[in-house]
Write a structure and sequence with these properties.
OB fold (Dihydrolipoamide Acetyltransferase, E2P); five-stranded mixed barrel
Length: about 80
């Protein structure tokens, strides 16, 4: 499980992979690009509702690419518990 701030950002301007992607930044300075199995990581609107929120993400980290394949995601309250 990885906890951090999710941002729904526009990346890769003027490239074939241009578009919005979900990025998760941890308090340790790690950053992961999020995607769901069977979905392209660019313009997957599923992540838009979590923009700017602290979340807990379960899934498989791909160390080589920095991507995290999300199997579950939950919003974390200010007191550190998930909703």
């Amino acid at each position: 499980m990885v906890t951090g701030l999710l941002k729904w950002e526009f990346l890769n301007k003027n490239s074939k992979s241009e578009g919005r992607m979900a990025l998760l930044s941890t308090v340790n300075g790690e950053q992961y690009k999020l995607y769901r199995a069977d979905h392209l990581p660019v313009e997957d609107d599923f992540f838009a509702e979590f923009d700017g929120l602290q979340v807990e993400v379960e899934g498989q980290i791909e160390e080589r690419t920095g991507y995290l394949c999300v199997s579950d995601i939950r919003v974390v309250n200010h007191n550190g518990t998930s909703e």
